[in-house]
Amino acid sequence: MKKTYFLFLALLCISALSSCVILSPKKYKALLAGKDSLYNAYNEGAAKISSLEDELKRLRKDTADLHEQMFDLQKRFGEMDANYAKLRSNSSTEISKLSDDLKKREARLKEVEEILRKRDAATNQLKEKLQQALLGFTKSGLTVEIKNGKVYVSLTDKLLFPSGSIIIDEKGRQALAQLAKVLKEQPEINIAVEGHTDSQKITNLGQIKDNWDLSVLRATSVVRFLTENEKVESVRMTATGKGEFQPLGPNTSAEGRSRNRRIEIVLSPKLDELYDLIKQ
């Protein structure tokens, strides 16, 4: 049994060896094809591994560069943050200063507005007083109006002077006396007396050479009457002559020339308080 068994095993081994050594052409070609395929697969795998290793090296380099850039950015961010904190501190100080300046300007503006409001109220009140005081002379060519924050009392020449004269007549004295009563009650009012004429040339008036002379001398006559006769403070008075150069109407008609021959008494509130604010 044992001999038979060993003989059987020997035959199996011989058979196996024979099958391993002796191959058919078909199986041999198949083995060669398999070997080539494995070799190609091995080469492809090796190439991919090499490529992946190169990619890994590149990624590691990119990672190192990114770390360096990140460090640089962090450093720059720190500097910018410090600058921003400094700027914000300075800006806060500047904003606070500007806010204080703005509040001061607003306070001054309110003061100016209040002064102007008082001026307008005083101007309107003065106009009403003058209209009441001079009511009896309105039919004789006297008008009272407000222009540019000032009160204008306009008196035609026929109310104050005889034709071509610089001497105030009786009716004119009465009108100026009534005007003076109001002016003496308003010491804060400045008074400018302006003489105006028409454009006709002056003839036969002795020492009066032209319309400039006539306008100035008539204004001076009014100022002298108000200061010397009615005791209005001289320091408040100004006399000027405008001649024919600020007409109210055309000099081509008798009506227009009559309007142009006039004395205008310009009353303006003193604005010392306002000027002081502006200087500040």
- How do the helices and strands follow one another from N- to C-terminus? HHEEHHEHEHEH
3D shape: rod-shaped
The proportion of residues forming helix, as a percent range, comes to 55-70%
Question: Which residues form runs of ≥5 with pLDDT under 50?
Answer: none
Question: Which band does the percent of strand residues land in?
Answer: 5-15%
From the alpha carbons, calculate the radius of gyration and give it in angstroms.
58 Å
Give the end-to-end Cα distance, rounded to a whole number of Å.
139 Å
The strands making up the biggest β-sheet line up spatially as 1-2-5-3-4
The secondary-structure class comes to: alpha+beta
Number of strands: 5
Helix run count: 7
The largest β sheet comes out as: 5 strands, mixed
- In round numbers, the mean pLDDT is 83
Topology (elements, then pairings):
Elements: H1 2-21, H2 25-133, E1 142-147, E2 150-156, H3 157-160, H4 170-184, E3 189-196, H5 211-229, E4 237-243, H6 254-260, E5 262-269, H7 272-279
Parallel strand pairs: 3-4
Antiparallel strand pairs: 1-2, 2-5, 3-5
Helix pairs in contact: 2-4
Structural description of this entry:
Helix content is 65%, strand content 13%. It is of the alpha+beta class. The protein has a five-stranded mixed β-sheet. Helix 2 (25-133) crosses helix 4.
